[in-house]
Amino acid sequence: MKDIEHMNEKRQLALDKIADADYEIYALLKQRYSPRVFDDTEVSDSDLNRLFEAVRWSASSSNLQPWRFIYARKGTDSFDRMVGCLSDFNTSWASEAPVLLFTAYKEKMDNGKENFHALHDLGLSLGSMTVQAQYMSIALHHMAGVDWKKAQEEFDIPEGYHISTAIALGYYGGVLDDLSEKLQKQETAKRERIPQSEFAFKDGWKNAKEKS
């Protein structure tokens, strides 16, 4: 009976998290959200390979492909070391994720010039990974709360490469009761986004707070 209740809870949460889009968009984009609880099923090597293959074919300025990743599974020493680089808040829930990743980028081109678009390309690659993951019922929770300097040292990141973010990864599911009451409220809160009028300006930049 309890398993059935958890399954129904999982389905209802997934339905509640579907974006209330102002315009019709691709279904996988509407369904995507960033959970803090995951199913405890181990993510297979094959599924991880598929996610990184989606990254591999992402758009990239001059085809430089500056993205880099470190990943580890729960229960390994590397995973624990990654957890040790997260903020206290992220540690409180991400330590239970099946997989953790650190994202990084190569700062310069091979000719020594700064690659101004490296972060842009890393972001594009993560967008590709996120959509591929959603297609596979895998959830990604991207985290800014990582001590990148500690991570650089802990994992011997070579000079010229920069840790950017962390990602908690696992199949959608899990049990909400495993989270604190505060996190449960965040997990079930209504999703909100600013309107297009505040970031898309026709014919030139316009302060979103100004009236036409």
From TrEMBL:
Residues 29-72 form the Nitroreductase domain. Pfam families: Nitroreductase. GO terms for molecular function: oxidoreductase activity. Transmembrane segments: none annotated. Signal peptide: none annotated. Keywords: Oxidoreductase. It comes from the Bacteria. InterPro entries: Nitroreductase, Nitroreductase-like. The keyword Oxidoreductase applies. Belongs to the nitroreductase family. PANTHER family: NAD(P)H NITROREDUCTASE YDGI-RELATED, NADH DEHYDROGENASE_NAD(P)H NITROREDUCTASE XCC3605-RELATED. This is Nitroreductase. The lineage of its organism: Bacteria, Pseudomonadati, Bacteroidota, Flavobacteriia, Flavobacteriales.
